[in-house]
Amino acid sequence: MNESKLRTIAQLEEFLAATPSVSFSGAANAATGIDERYGHISRVLKRFDYFHRNKHERGVVLAYLQHTSGYSRAQTKRLVARWHENRLAEVPLVKRYCAPAAPFVRKYTASDVELLVEMDKANEDVCGPAIVHLFKRAFNIYCDQRYERLANLSVSHLYNLRKSSGYQALRVTLTKTHPVCNPIGLRKAPRPNGRAGWVRIDSVHQGDLDGIKGVYHITCVDAISQWQIEACVEGISEAFLLPVLIFILSQFPFVIKGFHSDNGSEYINKKVAELLNKLNIEQTKSRSRQSNDNALAESKNNSVVRKHMGYSHIPQKYAKPINEFFANTFNSWLNMHRPCLFATEVVSDKGKIKKVYKNADVKTPLERLADLSKKRLVTFKKGITLKDLEAQAREKTDLQAAKEMQAAKAALFAMFNKPEVKKRA
Q: Residues 6 or more apart from 128 whose CB is under 8 A from it?
C-alpha cells in the first residue's frame, strides 16, 4: 500500500472513516513482514512529526498506525516510545527478540538413562530417594565416573526420567492377571473322594439374533455318577435363575453336598450363596488358570446340549416349553438309558496317573449309581430308593426311550419353526 500522499491529520481521519474494514498486511515471509511494518511505523511518525502534535492529533496517528499495521494499541504505543528514544541517534526500529542460537542442552544424556534403568532393575524399583542415594555412593565412595552427573540428580527429576520415552523403551514390565478377591465360595477343585453328591454346573447361551438374546441352558452334572439335569431359562438374572436352581437341585435323587461353578456372576452372588447355605451345600469355584476344574460340565455342554439343541438362535419365549421337555422326557432318558464313559485311573511305571476308558466302564448314570450304592458312597433323598429308580427305567427299553425323546424333540423344534400369524387390527 502506497500511503505516502497522506500528509495531514484530516486526511488520516478521512482514511480511517472510509476504510474501517481494510487492514494492513506485510509480506508472506514473517521476518520481512515485521520489517515492513516497523518501517511503515517509522515513516509515518517522522512524516507527521508525532511528538510535536497535540493529544488529539497523536490519537489520530496512533489509530492510523494501529489500523494499518495490525498491532494492538498497547503494542503500537510501545513501538512508538522505542522509536522516540532512538530517533536522535537515528537507530532504525527493528525487531529486538530472536530465536535462541542453539536449543537447550540436555543435562542428563541417554547413557544416564541407561544407568538409571540398570540401577532400577538391580534394586527392583525401590523408591526414588534410595536410588538417588545409591548414585551418590557410586560416585563418591566407589569413584565410578559414569555417575558424575547422576550423583547430583534430584528425587523429583528422577521420576521425570522414569516417565521419559527412553526409559519406558528400556523398561517393559509384564504383570500377571490378579485373581478377583470375591469372598463368596471357596476357590478350589471339589474332592468328592468317589462319593455322589458333588455337582458341577455351567450355562450355555443359545445365541443372539439382531441384538436379541436367546435362551440359556443350565447343565448340572454329578462329578462321580454323571447324573445330569438340564434346564432352560430366559435369562441368567436372579429373577429367572434362582427358581430354576431350586428345581434342578430337587430333581437329583441323592443328597447334594457340593456345588461347583466357574467364576461367573450368575452363580457367584449373595442370592445363590444364601440358597446353598440354607441347604447346607458347600459352594466352590474354579481356580485361576486351572481349566480342568469345571471340565466335566463344559464337556457335557458340547456332547449333550449342543448335539441335541444345536447352535441356532432360540427366542427367550420358548424357555418354558424347553424346560418342560427337559424335565418330562430328556433328563430321564439322559440318566436311565444313555450310556456314559467312566474313567479308570491307572498308575504307570513312572508313577504318573493316567485315565483309561475301558469297554467295561461304559454304563448309564443309573447303573453307576447302583455301583456306588453297593459301596455306600451315595445318600438317597427321603422317599427315593434305588429299586424305584430301576423300576422306572425298566418301564421302557433304551430304544423306546430314545425314540420318545426324539419325537418330543421334533415337536419342540417344530414349535420354533412355526410361522407366526400376524393379528389383524
A: 155, 158, 159
